[in-house]
Structure prediction request, 826 residues.
Amino acid sequence: MTEHAERLQRAASGVWRRPPLIRDWRYRLALALAVLVYLVLASWSVEVNWTRVAEGASRGLNFLGAFLQPDFTSRWRDIQQGLLESLTMTLTSTVIGILLAIPVGIGAARNMAPLPIYLFCRSIIAISRTFQEVIIAILFVVMFGFGPLAGMITLAFATIGFMAKLLAEDIEDIDERQVEAIRATGGSWLQLMNYAVQPQVMPRLIGLSLYRLDINFRESAVIGIVGAGGIGATLNTSLSRYEYDTAAAVLLIIIGIVMMTEYLSGYVRKWVQ
Amino acid sequence: MPVKLIEPGNDLSQAEWKLRTTRQQWLIWLGWLVGISLFLLCWKVISDNTMWVFVEDAPRQGADLLRRMMPPDWAYSERLWKPLWDTLNIATLGTLLGIIMAFPCAFLAARNTTPHPLIRSLALMIIVSSRSINSLIWAMLLVTILGPGILAGILAIALRSIGFVGKLLYEAIEEIHPTPVEAITATGASRMQVMSYAVLPQVMPAFAGISIYRWDINIRESTVLGLVGAGGIGLQLNAAINTLAWDRVSIIFILIFATVLVSEYISAKVRKAFI
Amino acid sequence: MLTLKQLTKRYTTGDKALTSVSLEIPAGQVAALIGPSGAGKSTLIRCVNRLVEPTEGQVFLGDTELTGLSSRQLRRARRRMGMIFQEYALIDRLTVMENVLSGYLGYTGFWRSYFRRYPQPVVQQAFKLLQRVGLENFIDKRADALSGGQRQRVGIARALLQSPEILLVDEPTASLDPKTSRQIMRLIKELCVERQLAAIINIHDVQLAQLFADRIIGLRAGQLVFDGQPEQLDAEILTRIYGEEDWNHASESGDVEEVMDPSVSQNHAQVTLRAASV
Prediction:
């Protein structure tokens, strides 16, 4: 209070500073020091081989040049094959992933499922969300062999974690009164889901599915690096052969398709609502 | 939104409502038909490209893998602290660099703050390109250019983050209240002053939240960058897989799992504090 | 002081918001601008400081013609016109003091304002203004922690820190309860008298307009339909501005025995309106 009076007095005489975000100056100093020390330590751990960078600079220029003259034709068969695999992988994995995410999501909603099921579903979600798709792809490639099937299963698994978590949060947030109203009519559990829960979460579910479709396509371009098929494999080979013009073509195709899906999903979302 | 409700055309569509339902019903059926056939077609493509012999073998392979992973090589963890530190640095420095570049980009891309429509489309181009290309692909490109190392990883994370942060931030900028902007403009303030007084305070919480969220995602992404040589714990993972040292792979997994959980916890806490 | 000549605003959609409005407001006069929703009141006010660009016509502030100014000159001219808004238009996440100081932005450079380095006399002045509107204890509070009436006071202090020659006031009471509305209007009126400020107050509430304005300007469908003293307002003129309505009824409160004769009711309306302004 006295501090406030002092500030008032100083403001009256024309001296006023914005009150700091963190009151205690010792905290402020400690925080600033901690950030500074971290930045110094972290940048110190970055070792840069400048001769290698200088060497790479010309390659970098070559690569930029390749973007101006992408080569779609000479490896068109590879690109086409990779693209087809990627697109099919994206679609099937999204569909399968969402179908599986619905039961997992319901199971992971605390207000819908008993505790053991809740814990089980939550742990599936946690595992699926923690590991990057590529890591999961490695395991599935070992299990199922090279090719798009491993990729599809990877993406479906990742989709389950993503969708089920958001779905569970949605279900936990639904309007309890509607659920009670249906429960009061003596409806079964399935009827409860169909009448009270589904209408409330459906619009967002559709929006999220489209968003996930977009993500899955982008991811499908990566998991090819570890042998799970798709356009990523094409990209990987072209880069390791230093065929920058083909790589540029692949990247441009990816950008184009992502832009297209984004535009389309915006359109569909408007149509659904 | 409410403007739409009082449009005179609303009455008309009410009258045609019945007609449209039957047509819509047909369209929905057609949609399902097309969707299901597309799905089956896609499934066939995948199945044609799959060696089903291997797939039948999958359960045995999986069990075998699990057995070989099972006692994790705990002793190996001592050699993982440095790569883990590198991974954290890649994520943090990369995020920092990314948001520094994304910040002006978002202001140029938002409809209400862009100086010119042409500049806006250029900024949107940057954002879309950055978003479309996964950080692992950025890392692949940068490793061929800069050589393997942490630097390539940091830049890859930064380049991918521009699009993510830029997109969410420019959407936040477009959603600000217009009246404070009017008020500050009316005082005779310059463009930059309007930005710093009327726009910035309104988007600051969103900006902080988005950045922390991206940092959390980047921790996860940076665990795999080593697979293509861009530093971090992924390098060890790659080495372990190539030598089929599955007990080492499992300890790396455990470490990644713990790190990501901690970062998610921190991110959620910080985001809550900002809102 | 402020002169509008044949001011016209046509929106790109083709809607004509203002049609050839001419007005003159001498120094120190408080003019209330009344009219139905969508009559162009807000557009008129915003055309003055060019938050909305007028399509045709001229605006003179003193000797300066505003519609032809370059953006730098326009910023200088805007400093001379303080604006007060309906939804207060404060920056919620900044402190009350910063909100008031933002009235000085037109006089200062970017970096000084970015680091909040305002000259000592300006801070002193801001503090005095906050004292004047009764909020000096709130300088370090965030603007979103205040009540509606308090926020509008901050908005008024911000406009005054510009040391304006005229106030442009856009529906200052539309979001406030009746008591606070009167307090705010009284405050604006007092400040205008104290500082010899002219003001255009665009307002919904006819009674408040009559109470606190020196002059009433009626706008309907973008055209000037009335310009006179508050005492002149009667049922006929209100009909001219707002359209057909039983004006007597509206100004009556709790009177059970209704007088049905139109000529009587008209007189009656005038009487009650007068009574309100006493």
Remarks:
- Chain A touches chain B through 60 residues (CB under 8 Å).
